[in-house]
Predict the structure.
Amino acid sequence: MSISKKNIFKQIQEIKTQAEQQTDQIKNQSDLERFKFEFLTRKSRVNQIMRSLKDLKSQDRKAAGQAANQLKNFLQKKYKQLGKQISFDKNLHIDITAPGCYYQMGHLHLTTQAIREIMKIFEKIGFYRVRYPEVEWDWYAFGALNFPEEHPARDEWETFFIDEQSVHPKLGKRILTPHTSSGQVREMQSGRLPIRMMNISKCPRRQLDVSHLLIHHQFEGLVVDKGINLKHLKGVINYFVKQYFGQARDFRIRPYDFLFTEPSFEVDVSCAACNKRGCKLCKQGWLEIGGCGMVHPKVLKNGGIDPSQYTGFAFGWGVERNKIMQEGINIKDIRLLYQNDLNFLEQF
Ligand code: PHE
C-alpha cells in the first residue's frame, strides 16, 4: 500500500480526536489500562504510523515524523495526567468533610432478650441454668413424670414422635420433648442436691394459631430440698411476677391436674390493660402464665430421691407467652415473633 503524507496527517488527527473523546470516560484504573493499550503499546496506531514513515518520500518524512512524535508526546502526557486524576479520586474516599454513613446495628431477638431477663431474675435467688436434650425419650418426658403407658394425657402435649423403629427397651420411643418438664428427672439423676434448676429450651408441639407456635420456648423451675412447701412456691411466683411484670401486677393460682405434681395449679397474672376489670385482651381480668405444683412423690422416686426426706415444687411456663404479657409489648399474634419481618422485629 502506498502511503502519503496527507494520509498520515489525517490519521494523526483522527487518533488525537479519539484520545480526547475518551479522556472524559476514564474513571478508574482499568479505564486507564484500556487507554494505554489502545494508544501507547507497540501495536497501537501511533506506532504503526512511526513504522510506516520509512516508506514516505524523503521530502515528506521530516514533517510527518515530527507530527507523529508530537502525537506520541501528547498521548503520553495525557496518560500521565489521567493517572494523577484517578489517584486524586481515590483520595476522595477518605474525604473527612464528606457526610458520614449510617450503619444499622442489629439487636437480639425478643425471645433471646426474654430468656436473658428471666435468667437474670432467677439467678438472684439462687437458680442455675441447665439444658437437657430436646430430642428425648418418652420416659423422661412422660413415663417418669407419672403418665401411665398410653395414657390419653399424652395427647394434650401434641407431641412429635420420631424414629418409630428405634424403641428403647426401658425409655420407650424417641420424641421431640413438648415440655421442659423432661429435665426434672434428668436433673434429679445428676445427684446434685438441693436442686434449684432453671431449664430453658425449645419445645415443639403440633399446634399453630394466634397463641401457639410449632416451636416455643419454656422455662422450667425445679426446687428440691428438705422442707420445701407450697409457701415457697407462692413466694417464688410472687417474686417473679413483680420482677418481670411490675410491682402493680397481681397473681392468683387455680387448682389444676398435672400428673407429675400434686397438688397442681395454673397461675394467672392480672391484666395490665384493664387492671382486673376484664377486657378483650384477657379472661375477666386475668392472663394465664402456665402450670405449677408440688413435685409428685413418684417423680422424686423416679429421679432417685427419697420423698420421705425431700419435697419440691416445679413450674414450667412459655417464654414467648410471658413476654407478650408484659406491659407495653402489645403483640396480638404470637406467630409474628418468627416471621422474620424486620419492620416488626426492629420495634423491640
Ligand atoms: N410442663 C407443663 C406444660 O408444659 C407445665 C408444668 C411444669 C406443670 C411444671 C407443672 C409443673 O404445660
Notes: The mean pLDDT is 91.
